[in-house]
Amino acid sequence: MDGSADLRTKLRAVVDQRMQTDPAHDLAHLDRVWINAQAIADDDANTRVLLAACYLHDLINLPKDDPSRHLASIRSAKESEPVLADFGYSTTETEAVQHAIAAHSFSANIPPETPEARILRDADRLDALGAIGIARNFSVSGALGRTLYDPSDPFAENRLPDDLHFSIDHWHVKLLRLPNDMLTAKGKAIARHRAARMMRFLQDLSEEIGAQLPPDWSNL
């Protein structure tokens, strides 16, 4: 087992004890983010920094409807410090991990300034797309008591999208727009591929509920 594999095992053990009961933000989510990060990382990325950032970025996970949601990544960054100290991370490494964690969040709106921060942000957002993105979207929406779609106007053709009440509206408001917001070339390519999977799902859904999917949903 190489050093990275051993460090990953130890990080997983630490976060496994601290993860909250949230199927969309569990240990499997962290594993997928790490897989995504490895797929899009380039030679400029520091593996130790990136690995720790992937596994510690959700130490504080607040519900989507929590008014302090935008502070979760900053609090996670602070919570990571003692963990990183236990694993022998230097001050420079710790600061790099903390910046990546703080900047990964959509709601925090912190510009990612390092390769590791850009990779983590893309890797985390990739997990909101594709087949797993569909599953996570409905899991989170169900936990918040949101309806799958508006029966009178499923694809918000004659109303403003409202993702506080309808799960599918969240695709229009945020998810299908993620590919254009990716910061890495590899991340963007994977994101577009996964978004295409989601569009195929929407086509099937529209047929099953007797609705027409508007053309503009393919151009978000």
Determine the strand fraction and express it as a percent band: under 5%
Unreliably modeled segments: none
Mean pLDDT: 94
What does the oligomeric state look like here?
single chain
User: What's the story with the biggest beta sheet?
Assistant: none
**First and last CA, distance:** 44 Å
Give helix and strand order, one letter per element, not per position. HHHHHHHHH
Rg from Cα: 18 Å
Number of helices: 9
Measured as a percent range, the helix fraction is 55-70%
| Inertia-based shape | elongated
Query: Can you count the beta strands?
Result: 0
Number of domains: 2
* Broad structural category: mainly alpha
Kindly describe this structure.
- The protein is mainly α.
- The chain folds into 2 domains: 109 residues; 90 residues, Hypothetical protein af1432.
- It has 9 helices and no strands.
- Helix 3 packs across helix 6, helix 4 packs antiparallel against helix 5 and helix 5 runs parallel beside helix 6.
